[in-house]
Amino acid sequence: DAGVIQSPRHEVTEMGQEVTLRCKPISGHDYLFWYRQTMMRGLELLIYFNNNVPIDDSGMPEDRFSAKMPNASFSTLKIQPSEPRDSAVYFCASRPFSAGEQFFGPGTRLTVL
Amino acid sequence: QQPVQSPQAVILREGEDAVINCSSSKALYSVHWYRQKHGEAPVFLMILLKGGEQKGHDKISASFNEKKQQSSLYLTASQLSYSGTYFCGTERENDYKLSFGAGTTVTVRA
Question: Which of B44, B90, B92 is the best substitution to test chain A (most A C-beta atoms within 10 A)?
Fold first, then answer.
């Protein structure tokens, strides 16, 4: 298996622009997680899905952030409008129902100028 | 609530041992340990379920004290490849999300 796939790997954009991050989980995994990592705040959970349904979005910072999972093999995290404080590495992770291990994607490094 | 990790950083020489601690104020179902190298994604090391189970992976092992809601990661006879930032992630019963600690940066020198 190719593992969790994220795109793009790097994104540089200007403040006010819309940013869409993409994730393809490992096939057969029931859970998908979106994390944000910064030096100041560490690794924080934004939202997670179970069988494509959002279960907990309490970590989503504000209404500018939205996430969708239209099917079992694809999820997006959208920031609109983006701000410089959104600059971070965004990770997607997935796990199967039967085991606790989460498999992380390579991450998307977002820079908002 | 985020678990508390200690120490924040540790420097070792090859062959030395280290212990990283993780504690939570909440009742836990499991504790996960991950290692992250600079510029890379976190990589799973091991999971410990409530019950005080101890696990090992090569010369890296961990324990979970359910009564104290504490877990410890043991690096034994450290190797250069052990360098990185170690995170504990805690999971509560019937709650499939992880709360990660701030991380412990381990540097192993020759």
Answer: B44
